[in-house]
Design brief:
140 residues, Nucleotidyltransferase, domain 5, 15% strand, elongated
Length: 140
């Protein structure tokens, strides 16, 4: 085996042979062209057409007012605490269940408010909101 010194005329090739890369890309392209229609599993069905409006039933809102001295108001009507639980259970039985909006006086003790919320939760009224006055509004 004889080693020949490299001829200056024969320089090393410093470029990539593109032919194998092009061959691989063409094979992949053919595979994707054949496989793409097979990936759609849609079954064409002629569905019947119907015109209907979306029933957007908004739940009723119940206003529960609590004064600082503990007096309770059910939609503006004064109610005793004993009758309040029965009204809450009757309201929770309606479909869709109404929302309970609590309007409590700023000086209402927390115990009174917590008792009313626990009563509503036991009755099944899960949507409870608080009504407040914006800070910059003048008192009525």
């Amino acid at each position: 085996m004889a080693f020949h010194p490299q001829d200056a005329r024969r320089a090393t090739m410093a470029e990539i042979n593109m032919i194998p890369l092009i061959d691989v890309m063409l094979v992949l392209l053919i595979i994707f062209i054949i496989a793409a229609p097979l990936l759609t599993h849609a079954v064409k069905i002629d569905l019947p057409r119907a015109d209907s409006a979306v029933a957007d039933v908004k739940p009723e809102t119940i206003q529960l007012g609590i004064k600082a001295d503990g007096v309770l108001f059910w939609n503006g009507e004064e109610v005793a605490e004993a009758d309040l639980e029965a009204r809450m259970q009757a309201a929770a039985a309606r479909e869709p269940a109404p929302e309970l909006h609590i309007q409590a006086d700023a000086a209402t003790p927390y115990e009174t408010l917590a008792r009313a919320m626990a009563m509503a939760s036991r009755a099944g009224l899960g949507k409870i909101g608080f009504i407040s006055r914006p800070e910059d509004a003048t008192p009525p």
